[in-house]
Design a protein that fits this description.
alpha+beta, Jelly Rolls, seven-stranded mixed sheet, six-stranded antiparallel sheet, binds fe (ii) ion, iron, oxidoreductase
């Protein structure tokens, strides 16, 4: 997951989504509402335990039908000339809900962090690899600086798999690669990045064995997404 702020071009919903533009999605709205309530409660008391299981259970219900999202064709999506595509579903102070789509096999959301964020991923179409690293500190070093992490390993996920949860201090730095063309996932960030931006890191090569320590080096952001005008739910 990344903030979708670095968008250099856009595709309209008419180009991508054949059904969603004018249709409300009451089932999606009803599913996101309790997650927003959890987000707002958490924002009021950040020292309370975070109810990650509840969010995972709600998000597990979300699929392509609930999103009214047909799988875009390769031919349409490649017109953007961008490997990664982003659409905002909902944005408010305490929660960000987005769609990310990768065009081709090996396209990726490169290694990045989620400072002080609880993040959730549910695959909608296709198949992804998620490489996860845990850093004890959510404070990123300066560009060129290093951070000590623990490589958790890689998961392969499809729409049939459970929601992935990452927490401050656990899996809070990750890279997501597509294993199929037109792979799409929904993510929820609690809270969103706000005024923060994602820090990007060099992917260690070769990868260390899972469950071992590894030092990551921060690098400059060299990545962009194409913004897709999916109809947002401003008010849940
Ligand atoms: Fe991420």
């Amino acid at each position: 997951m990344l903030d979708g702020s670095a968008c250099e071009s856009s595709l309209s919903s008419k180009q991508i989504f054949s059904t969603a533009e004018t249709v409300d999605r009451p089932a999606l709205r009803q599913t996101l509402k309790p997650i927003l309530a959890i987000s707002n409660t958490f924002a009021a008391n950040r020292s309370a335990p975070f109810p990650s299981k509840k969010v995972m259970n709600f998000l597990a219900k979300v699929d392509s039908k609930m999103l009214q999202l047909e799988r875009p064709s390769y031919e349409i999506l490649e017109k953007s000339k961008s490997p990664a595509h982003y659409a905002s579903i909902h944005y408010s102070d305490n929660m960000t809900v987005s769609l990310f789509g990768l065009l081709d096999v090996e396209d990726k959301l490169p290694l990045h962090d989620h400072p002080f964020i609880h993040g959730f991923i549910k695959v909608i179409y296709g198949k992804f690899q998620v490489f996860s690293f845990s850093a004890k500190s959510d404070v990123a070093p300066e560009i060129g600086g290093e951070i000590e992490t623990f490589y958790e390993g890689v998961q392969v996920v499809t729409p049939e798999d459970d929601v992935i949860y990452l927490a401050p201090g656990y899996g809070n730095i990750h890279e997501i690669r597509a294993l199929e063309p037109i792979s799409i996932f929904i993510d929820i960030l609690i809270p969103g990045y706000g005024s923060n931006t994602a820090a990007h890191y060099e992917m260690p090569r070769p990868l260390p064995p899972p469950k071992t320590k590894v030092t990551l080096k921060r690098k400059r952001k060299h990545f962009w997404t194409t913004n897709i005008d999916y109809p947002t739910l401003s008010n849940l």
